[in-house]
Amino acid sequence: MSLERFIEQAISPWMSQEGPDSDIVLSSRIRLARNISVYQFPTVANNEECKEIIQLFEHRFESQSFDPVGNFELLKMSELQPIEKRVLVEKHLISPHLAEEANFGACLLSENEEVSIMINEEDHIRIQCLYPGFQLSEALHVANELDDWIEDSIDYAFDEKRGYLTSCPTNVGTGLRASVMMHLPALTLTQQMNRIIPAINQLGLVVRGIYGEGSEALGNIFQISNQMTLGKSEDDIVEDLKSVVHQLIVQERAARDTLLKTSSIQLEDRVYRSFGVLAHSRIIESKEAARCLSDVRLGIDLGFIKNVSRNILNELMILTQPGFLQKYAGGALRPNERDVRRATLIRERLILENSNSPDEKEAK
Predict the structure, then answer these.
(1) Phi-psi region of 27 (alpha: psi -120 to 50; beta: other; left: phi over 0)
(2) Angle, nearest 10°, between helix axes 335-355 and 322-329?
(3) What is the mean pLDDT of the segment spanning 96-101?
């Protein structure tokens, strides 16, 4: 399979789009946790109950259409290969926890992959909506409509005082997790993130890495999300997060301006050195690749690098993960083989980008 065709098939359609403030906010996500009243929570449910829940979703929702995301397809974890599940995790369509539920987990996935409904994860139902750029309100609107659509057929576990009941007490109430994925290289380079993260935590929000809890902020990509789910409405939770994200956007842009004014030549040198590493390396580890991709994306945003798509960071941060590398290779790879394959894929992607640029086409 050619790289171009692989990218078209591998990358979710929403990933190739740009949304508001997409120079800094890569994506917005809303996740709602729900449980079915007549079943025990997945953490204590027996195998038969878990099977029944999957069958319930298979019969009522698979191949059903929900505007504006289209039809849903049911993916059973027991029917997927380990590499396939890893790819779904790397695309943020399922959680690592669900991928481990080999026999009793499933996912309803929309055609455009903006919506995934995880079944028998920590809760019976986890509705997730993903949007490009800074679109938390839009994602919440679709998630609420989808929530109502499901509730027409299913009786949720709900308490008048406590709200939606969940396996983990930290999700009780709204069951809402709102998050944004942000690229903050200038705040990191100016060492401001060290003081910003504790300040954000004091506001009841949490800062994590690219794959959520327990993951690193590879490539200067940070996930900002709410911690509180009880005592506030969904709209208030989202508005609080939006307010903090707005401030981070302003601070990141100010930090970029400062770097341009005080260290322009050093910054440009850093960007082009990283571009050279990506364009010519034969072996590259994931951390180095993430750092260089972050530098190049910053260089594109600041106008140092022309004719390279801003979305290249979104694409390559996913395509160079272990699951995707092995899928593209057609089989399992040892760590050192993945480093070689990662370098090759990045070089090929940059060559493909150059061949598709307007200047290159005009020259031909």
Answers:
(1) beta
(2) 80
(3) 86
CA atoms within 13 A on the CB side of 136: 25
How does DSSP classify residue 14? G
CA distance 319 to 7: 8
Predicted confidence band of residue 357 (pLDDT cuts 50, 70, 90)? low
3-state secondary structure of 25: strand
124 in Cβ contact with 34 (< 8 Å)? yes
Contact 165, 175 (CB under 8 A): no
Distance, CA of 160 to CA of 110 (rounded, Å)? 32
SS3 316: helix
Phi, psi of 221 (to 5 degrees): -105, 125
**Mean pLDDT across 331-335:** 93
Beta bridge partners of 224: 180, 207
For residues 314 and 297, give the distance between their C-alpha atoms in angstroms, rounded to a whole number.
Answer: 9
Question: Per-residue confidence at 60, pLDDT binned at 50, 70, 90?
Answer: confident
Q: Which residues are annotated as a binding site?
A: 27-31, 92, 126, 177-181, 208-213
Helix (H, G, I), strand (E, B) or coil at 5: helix
Phi-psi map region of 191: left, alpha, beta (phi>0 left; psi -120 to 50 alpha): left
Instruction: Give the helix ranges, DSSP H, for 170-311.
Output: 185-189, 193-202, 234-280, 286-301
SS3 call for 105: coil
Most confident among 83-87, 177-181, 350-354 (mean pLDDT): 177-181
**Bind-site residues for ATP:** 27-31, 92, 126, 177-181, 208-213
Model pTM above 0.85: yes
Phi, psi of 269 (to 5 degrees): -60, -45
Residues 195-205: b if buried by 16+ CB within 10 A, e if exposed: ebbeebeeeeb
Torsion sign across C-alpha atoms 151, 154, 155, 158:
negative
Share of the chain above pLDDT 90, in %: 69
Q: How many CB atoms lie within 10 A of CB 103?
A: 12
